[in-house]
Amino acid sequence: MQAILDHQGRYSVDFVVADVECPALDRARAAGIRAEVVAVDGDRDEWNVRLAETVASTDPDVVVSAGFMKILGQGFLDRFEGSLINTHPALLPAFPGAHAVRDALAYGVKVTGTTVHYIDSGVDTGEIIAQRALNVREGETEEELHERIKVMERELIVDTLHRATPTTTGKVEFSA
Fold this sequence. Notes:
Blueprint: H1 2-6, E1 15-18, H2 23-30, E2 34-37, H3 44-56, E3 63-65, H4 74-79, E4 84-88, H5 100-107, E5 111-118, E6 128-135, H6 142-162, E7 164-166, E8 172-174
Parallel strand pairs: 1-2, 3-4
Antiparallel strand pairs: 4-5, 5-6, 7-8
């Protein structure tokens, strides 16, 4: 979140939403950006409706899921289809899911990286927008590798957002 806030220019952050109070909300508020909690309290379908209405209140061109770690419902996905993006700490389609770095190390890969992709109804199955690779160091721990990937992930999401162009169809395109 901080990298996204720090590198505004061609894009601007208007609103930050989370499901719990967290440092991302504190960072947004400190930067004078509207921030709100939409708590998961009860029915997930009802939460997805509240979340979609809250996010839609700013009429965003792009919705970035940065560390959100929640599966979004179909209603939310349909409402923001083509403008909803995510970062992932692996070179998709390899190693989807919440344990990508651990899974990549367990498999013994020599190269991994980060991906920015559109969010769809699958788990990390959306169309790939951008990727960056890095070599895995001999004996590197999951924590060490994940920290190096996070640095690349921050750079890649910022670069990707700087290349965003809304279209008349509602889908955001990202130039090369």
